[in-house]
């Protein structure tokens, strides 16, 4: 039943998608196309017959491709026909273009013009003449140059009609020359040489790519007719082709010049029909799946793809296959690109099998661009690099394609098993490309290198072991390749071998792969450091303190916790048996943005003389849960908590008596100091643990205190996330970036840190249609897109960390979600779980998103995520090298709030965590306040003269003036203001007005409290902490 529902849902969504993307040939569109084609034909008729065409029409182009002859007398084209997707009714929006096939006249060519780029030169000159006359047509808005599949030696004309249609925005017509019957196909056999400059010594080398380039034009019309015949009157086949186009366009690494394109996809589908692999009984999704399975198993790049050609010597016109004379339609697919194509196909087929609702979102709605796919991205600025075209722009292949292969081969050899895929793409042609200026300007666009890591462990490997010392020839090759980086080492197993060592601290091992790539490109391709732009560590600044990553101290923290755990479990002088101790704080699972560093005062012995002026007053505590058993516990919640406090005091006394540890007790908490850390103890008694584990709704669970329930949930979460971190080492850094970004944009109150961890966990547990992220920037980008693109209104996000959830569990979660949405619809006053996060320990999303984010907060969060995701994508893919551009990801626009409070940054408990000092130069300045002298974040010089005990009494555990100030404002003005703040160290608070009824607002204005006086009152609440208050927008009245 569930499978049937899934299939019907998939089919429904597919049909809706087809309605959205398929271009309908309306009368208006047909008229526009026909009128434009007529205008093109009229312009061609105006070209004088026998016009003498010389290289002067495009001298730079002819020179750059190396053509030796290129003059001819202009003749009218033999035919002009519409081809491509428009001719078979399979245009997929938003790319609305129409191919116009223009057959070049044989009279303009000699029988040997297939040699030495003469055909390509005349082809271009023919288009130059046409362009001149098209520009004078009143029905044509503009004419531009483009290329056929990024092949610069085969330009095409792009014609934009003067009229525009809303149903087909940006429509243009491509004029593509064809060379039907121009040359003898046998002369273009892939084993022949037709570029005499390509030779080794005196031996001419084959030019298979050059030959296929001409053959492609010779058989373009014929192959288009074959495709048209197959698709004519077959609705399902056309729909399948559109689905395949949508699928491919979303995947930047395969929808590119050396892989697949729309025409090749139509050819593959037609080929499968010809081979009876597709029949009329199949539905569009069945054809879609069959095509993908063919691509997955058949090596197109190796065997090629050949269509039958028509034997014109036969009176019957029989179709015959002759691979020596027909073109390999897949000749552009490279041996590097095809394995990635097969991998994308495999991931898609996996989506069909494993993802919810048939994987529609993952297959047809998720953008898999290079920025989100690859773990490491590089851009090589090669403008003016003479090495690229040192042998000429065009021999068998173009110099840019050869350079792509050189870079790939170099990195493939150097990275070995660190990389699963290495993608090198150089998109040379651009919108302002002008053939008349030649090919020398086509190096202005940077070359892109994307690396998909095989595993984090391999990518972070410090030592690469080469050949044994005894293998002299291999060792010599290794040293020649690596140069000064190669060294002979003896390993622990006694082996002596060549090796390369990339010394690195634990926190910077993600930079090892970057260092290898830069070294190889510099050594073998003579690229300077400024010409290599790597996208690896640009966001690391947001996680550093004093230039170092505080997570690097986590090893000591875990060691201290282990010792504390042993001491707690060994306590015997307390009427409480401690069975286990579990860390709850995110610092223990490597997901805290700023895990606490050791505090010099939080030690058993302290040398006062060694304290420095930057010793912080505040000590950040770490929560630890004790699971304990005792006799009968009281049933009242208040008495339970009081009993816990008594036990905690007894535990503290025991630690003090037995180990001399410093313990601080308050009315609610007990903090234990050990080796520079402060641990805050919590107790979960075993009776509460057993009851809280029952099914939700069980009568006994009502007797469990809310505190015990939350402790249990937190312990479950901490345990699961800690295990996830060990499975995916990059998980922690991605979570930290996500938390830092949320806080920087003042969303600290909207999304609990546990919720952030679950969102990022989803990216690792359910990465499809991607592979698991293996770099922090890639993971962070996917996090932003998840927030921005997920359907939070109609979908629940299930995070199954341990794989515990069954189909019944998922059904229960869906029922909870449906009930939640139904209840909110019936009564909007009920708090809505705008973001429904379900886990094995929290199937009803009560723990982390019950109250926040609310619908308005989520709407704002989605908007910010979308903006940041787009901006980050631009930074990765475009030539952005300014570090200030990357900083903008963490600079929030304060002008988007109704009012802004600026705080004294030097009165924050941890001033070093402040990324940027906030300033505002707009709005009405309402209030200004001086910094208080009653609190300083660091020890003052006068404090150094005090005794250790006096200094300890001044220490404040978990003191946060921001949290106190926010709490006071919310208590006083919760019905008037919503506060947005950064709990990780920001110095700005955004305020938005809560909507109130017009009458209530008028009464408030009469009292003189709204809005300026209200903001001044807010400033007074934070006197000594608040620097400035600004009013940007007055509240809107609600009738």
Task: Provide a concise account of the structure shown.
This protein is of the alpha+beta class and 1039 residues long. The two termini are 50 Å apart. The model is unreliable at 310-325 and 695-702 (pLDDT under 50).
Structural topology:
Elements: H1 2-21, H2 27-45, E1 52-53, H3 59-65, E2 72-73, E3 79-83, H4 84-87, E4 97-103, H5 118-134, E5 140-148, E6 151-161, E7 172-178, E8 199-200, E9 203-204, H6 208-218, H7 220-231, H8 235-249, H9 262-274, H10 284-297, H11 300-303, E10 309-310, E11 319-320, H12 337-354, H13 360-364, H14 370-373, E12 376-380, H15 399-415, E13 419-425, E14 447-453, H16 456-459, E15 463-468, H17 472-482, E16 486-490, E17 496-501, H18 512-525, E18 532-535, H19 554-569, E19 577-583, E20 618-619, E21 621-629, H20 637-659, E22 663-665, E23 670-674, E24 677-685, H21 686-692, H22 706-727, H23 731-744, H24 753-765, H25 776-789, E25 797-798, H26 807-826, E26 837-838, H27 855-877, H28 883-887, E27 899-903, E28 924-928, H29 948-954, E29 956-957, H30 961-973, E30 977-981, E31 988-993, H31 998-1006, H32 1012-1021, E32 1026-1031
**Which structural class should the secondary elements be placed in?**
alpha+beta
Strand coverage percent: 15-25%
Helix percentage range: 25-40%
CATH arch. level architecture of the largest domain: 2-Layer Sandwich
Q: Enter the CATH topology name of the largest domain.
A: Beta Polymerase, domain 2
Rg over alpha carbons: 35 Å
What is the class of the largest domain in the CATH system?
Answer: Alpha Beta
CATH H-level superfamily title of the largest domain: Beta Polymerase, domain 2
List segments where confidence is low: pLDDT < 50 over at least 5 consecutive residues.
310-325, 695-702
Distance between the termini: 50 Å
Shape: elongated
The order of strands across the largest sheet is 3-4-7-6-5
Subcellular location: Nucleus, Nucleolus
Domain Nrap protein: 98-230, 238-367, 372-526, 550-725, 728-891, 895-1001
Keywords: Nucleus, RNA-binding
GO molecular function, one term: RNA binding
């Amino acid at each position: 039943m569930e499978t049937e529902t899934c299939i019907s849902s998939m089919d429904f969504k597919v049909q809706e998608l087809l309605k959205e993307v398929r271009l309908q040939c309306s009368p208006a569109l047909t008229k526009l196309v026909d009128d434009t084609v007529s205008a093109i034909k009229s312009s061609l008729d105006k070209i004088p017959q026998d016009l003498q065409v010389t290289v002067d029409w495009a001298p730079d182009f002819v020179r750059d491709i190396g053509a030796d002859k290129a003059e001819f007398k202009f003749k009218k084209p033999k035919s002009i026909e519409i081809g491509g997707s428009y001719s078979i009714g399979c245009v997929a929006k938003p790319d609305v273009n129409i191919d116009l096939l223009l057959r070049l006249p044989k009279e303009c060519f000699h029988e040997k013009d297939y040699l030495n780029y003469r055909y390509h030169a005349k082809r271009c000159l023919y288009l130059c003449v046409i362009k001149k006359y098209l520009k004078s047509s009143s029905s044509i808005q503009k004419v531009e140059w483009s290329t056929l599949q990024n092949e610069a030696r085969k330009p095409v004309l792009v014609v934009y009609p003067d009229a525009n249609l809303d149903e087909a925005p940006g429509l243009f017509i491509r004029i593509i020359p064809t060379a039907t019957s121009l040359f003898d196909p046998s002369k273009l056999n892939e084993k022949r040489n037709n570029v005499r400059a390509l030779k080794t010594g005196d031996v001419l080398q084959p030019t298979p790519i050059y030959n296929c380039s001409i053959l492609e034009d010779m058989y373009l019309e014929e192959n288009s007719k074959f495709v048209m015949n197959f698709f004519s009157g077959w609705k399902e086949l056309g729909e399948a082709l559109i689905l395949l186009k949508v699928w491919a366009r979303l995947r930047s690494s395969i929808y590119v010049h050396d892989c697949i394109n729309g025409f090749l996809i139509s050819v593959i589908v037609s080929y499968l029909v010809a081979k009876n692999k597709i029949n009329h009984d199949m539905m569009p999704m069945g054809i879609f799946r069959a095509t993908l399975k063919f691509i997955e198993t058949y090596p197109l790049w190796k065997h090629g793809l050949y269509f039958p050609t028509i034997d014109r010597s036969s009176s019957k016109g029989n179709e015959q296959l002759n691979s020596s004379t027909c073109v390999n339609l897949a000749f552009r697919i490279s041996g590097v690109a095809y394995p990635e194509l097969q991998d994308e196909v495999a991931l898609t087929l996996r989506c069909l099998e494993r993802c919810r609702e048939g994987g529609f979102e993952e297959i047809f709605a998720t953008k898999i661009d290079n920025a989100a796919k690859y773990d490491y991205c590089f851009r090589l600025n090669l403008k003016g690099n003479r090495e690229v075209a040192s042998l000429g722009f065009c021999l068998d292949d173009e110099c840019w394609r050869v350079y792509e292969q050189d870079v790939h081969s170099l990195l493939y050899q150097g990275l070995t098993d660190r990389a699963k895929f290495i993608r090198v793409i150089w998109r040379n042609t651009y919108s302002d490309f002008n053939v008349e200026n030649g090919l020398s300007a086509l190096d202005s666009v940077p070359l892109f290198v994307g690396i998909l890591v095989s595993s984090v462990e391999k990518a972070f490997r410090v030592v690469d072991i080469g050949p044994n010392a005894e293998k002299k020839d291999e060792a010599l090759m290794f040293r020649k390749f690596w140069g000064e980086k190669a060294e002979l080492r003896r390993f622990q197993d006694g082996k002596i071998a060549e090796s390369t060592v990339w010394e690195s601290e634990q926190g910077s091992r993600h930079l090892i792969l970057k260092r290898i790539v830069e070294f190889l490109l510099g050594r073998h391709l003579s690229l300077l450091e400024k010409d290599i732009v790597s996208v690896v560590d640009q966001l690391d600044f947001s996680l550093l303190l004093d230039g170092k990553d505080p997570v690097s101290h986590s090893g000591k923290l875990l060691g201290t916790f282990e010792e504390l755990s042993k001491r707690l479990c060994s306590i015997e002088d307390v009427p409480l048996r401690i069975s286990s101790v579990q860390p709850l704080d995110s610092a223990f699972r490597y997901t805290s943005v700023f895990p606490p560093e050791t505090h010099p005062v939080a030690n058993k012995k302290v040398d006062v003389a060694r304290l420095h002026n930057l010793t912080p007053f505040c000590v950040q505590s770490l929560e630890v849960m004790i699971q304990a058993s005792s006799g009968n516990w009281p049933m009242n919640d208040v008495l339970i908590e009081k009993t816990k406090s008594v036990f905690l005091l007894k535990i503290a006394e025991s630690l003090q008596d037995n180990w001399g540890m410093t313990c601080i007790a308050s009315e609610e908490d007990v903090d234990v100091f050990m080796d520079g850390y402060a641990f805050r103890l919590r107790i979960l008694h075993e009776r509460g643990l057993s009851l809280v584990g029952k099914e939700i709704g069980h009568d006994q669970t009502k007797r469990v205190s809310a505190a015990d329930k939350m402790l249990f949930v937190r312990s479950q979460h901490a345990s699961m996330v800690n295990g996830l971190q060990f499975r995916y080492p990059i998980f922690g850094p991605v979570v930290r970036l996500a938390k830092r970004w949320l806080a920087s944009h003042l969303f600290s109150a909207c999304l609990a840190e546990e919720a952030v961890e679950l969102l990022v966990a989803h990216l690792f547990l359910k990465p499809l249609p991607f592979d698991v992220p293996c770099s922090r920037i890639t993971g962070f980008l996917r996090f932003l897109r998840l927030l921005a693109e997920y359907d939070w209104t109609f979908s629940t996000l299930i995070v199954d960390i341990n794989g515990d959830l069954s189909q019944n569990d998922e059904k229960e979660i869906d029922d909870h979600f449906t009930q939640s949405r139904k209840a909110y619809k019936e009564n909007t006053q009920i708090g809505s779980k705008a973001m429904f996060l379900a886990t094995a320990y929290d199937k009803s999303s009560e723990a982390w998103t019950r109250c926040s984010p609310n619908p308005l907060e989520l709407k704002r969060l989605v908007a910010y995520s979308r903006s940041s995701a787009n901006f980050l994508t631009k930074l990765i893919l475009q030539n952005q090298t300014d570090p200030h551009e990357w900083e903008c990801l963490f600079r929030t626009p304060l002008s988007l709030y109704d009012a802004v409070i600026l705080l004294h940054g030097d009165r924050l408990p941890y001033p070093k965590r402040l990324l940027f000092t906030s300033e505002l130069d707009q709005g009405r300045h309402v209030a200004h306040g001086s910094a208080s002298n009653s609190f300083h974040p660091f020890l003052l010089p006068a404090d150094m003269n005090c005794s250790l005990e006096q200094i300890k009494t001044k220490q404040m555990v978990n003191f946060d003036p921001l949290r106190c100030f926010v709490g006071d404002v919310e208590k006083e003005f919760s019905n008037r203001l919503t506060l947005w703040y950064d709990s990780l160290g920001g110095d700005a608070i955004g305020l938005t007005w809560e909507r109130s009824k017009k009458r209530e607002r008028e009464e408030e204005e009469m009292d003189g409290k709204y809005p300026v006086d209200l903001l001044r009152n807010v400033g007074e609440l934070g006197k000594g902490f608040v620097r400035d208050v600004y009013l940007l927008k007055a509240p809107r009245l609600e009738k």
